[in-house]
Design goal:
Layout (H helix, E strand, L loop, with lengths): L20 H11 L7 H8 L3 H10 L13 H15 L5 H30 L9 H36 L4 H5 E11 L2 H7 L2 H21 L3 E5 L3 E6 L2 H16 L7 E13 L2 E3 L1 H12 L4 E4 L1 H9 L7 H13 L9 E5 L3 E3 L3 E3 L2 E5 L4
Parallel strand pairs: 4-6
Antiparallel strand pairs: 1-3, 1-4, 2-3, 4-5, 6-10, 7-10, 8-9
Helix pairs in contact: 1-6, 2-3, 2-4, 3-5, 4-5, 9-10
């Protein structure tokens, strides 16, 4: 027999009579605790104000639940930890909310992907007559500890890599406002494809593009910032690294007959980083260059071209490269081994950014 909680309209275990029993069992399995608290009770138990608890809760991406008894000891502990960081002076209140928001947004996407793509396939009924409901719980029970361990491992690896980049920054300002190479890679004619392809085919194409781009960016030393279906945004500390990624993307996609043409725009300069994303004029310029880039080509801005010239990844002109090669041959030395070639394109006005001079980036013929 259940006893109705007078404050929440739910039973003593916190269950709404209309809720699916399997959903409640899965929630208990995943959270590892039963529902015990209303939001007010959780905030009081954590020693934080209801206002701050609500800010944390919403920042993590969860809907308001009124005063339903739907929270667990884990929710109380999370509130207590965030509030404790603020009380200890390790984080400001605004920063604690930002931590909650960035974590919530990142893990929400991961959880959606795992359920939609991963668990959906695994929980197909193995035998006729069995329902997905009958196989979901044991599958989740088996996978949960393994996925949790793997998530923590990847997070620690990413945290170590990010911390390493921060401590190598020249000064404190560079930790937030840094000089980076930023690139957008965009599938050409994607809107037309959405009208011609079935939804499943389109989903497979987008997944293949995102997977290929993510692998190439990571393998060549860049960082994937985000994917936008038909477009990916990546960054690199080094312009030469970003250039190599761009050309490899073009080359790889060109050899895949199932893929549309690709175009890439890149810029180099000061970038503001927030919550794993990048902002600023440099990012906007890279985006604009992408929109005007020819098919299967890479356009870069003047600052990017100058950085490649400075690091001797590209000559300022082929005439200069020829002169250097002739001088080196005369002295019996090896000429500079430039990886890339730069060709100045037409100047053109770009909305919001004035007149820009794009440069066409290609591989240099070393033959």
């Amino acid at each position: 027999m259940t006893v109705e909680d007078p404050d929440s309209g739910t039973d003593a275990q916190g269950a709404d009579p209309g809720e699916d029993p399997l959903a409640l069992r899965l929630e208990g399995l995943i959270l590892g605790a039963e529902r015990r608290y209303t939001p007010f009770q959780a905030a009081r138990s954590a020693g934080v104000s209801m206002e701050l608890a609500s800010r944390f809760w919403r920042a993590m991406g969860f809907a308001d639940i009124g005063q339903a008894k739907a929270l667990t000891e884990a929710d109380v502990l999370a509130l207590r930890r965030l509030a404790g960081l603020v009380e200890a002076g390790l984080l400001s209140e605004a920063m604690a909310v930002q931590v909650a928001r960035s974590t919530g947004q990142t893990t929400a996407r991961l959880a959606e992907w795992q359920i939609d793509s991963f668990l959906e396939g695994l929980t197909e009924p193995p035998e006729p007559g069995m329902t997905r409901t009958e196989v979901t719980y044991p599958i989740v029970e088996l996978l949960l500890p393994e996925l949790e361990e793997f998530l923590v491992y990847v997070w620690r690896r990413q945290l170590a890599a990010s911390a390493g980049r921060v401590v190598q920054a020249a000064d404190d300002d560079e930790m937030v406002d840094r000089r980076l190479a930023v690139g957008f890679a965009d599938l050409v004619g994607f809107t037309r494809l959405t009208r011609r392809m079935e939804e499943e085919e389109l989903g497979e194409l987008v997944e293949a593009f995102e997977t290929t781009a993510a692998d190439l960016v990571a393998a060549n030393g860049g960082r994937l910032i985000k994917t936008l279906g038909d477009e990916v945004l990546y960054a690199a500390d080094d312009a030469g690294v970003a250039a190599e990624i761009a050309l490899r993307l073009i080359e790889t996609m060109a050899h895949d007959e199932t893929m549309p043409e690709l175009r890439v725009g890149m810029a180099f300069g000061t970038v503001t980083t927030r919550m794993g994303d990048v902002f600023g004029t440099t990012v906007n310029l890279a985006s604009r260059l992408t929109s005007i880039a020819p098919k299967d080509a890479v356009l870069v801005d003047t600052a990017f071209a100058e950085e490649l010239i400075r690091t001797q990844d590209a000559p300022s002109s082929e005439a200069e490269a020829a002169e250097e090669a002739a001088a080196a041959e005369k002295e019996g030395e090896e000429p500079p081994a430039y990886r890339f070639a730069l060709q100045p394109m037409w100047q053109r006005p770009v909305r919001g950014l004035g007149v820009v001079e794009p440069w066409l980036l290609t591989r240099r013929d070393l033959g």
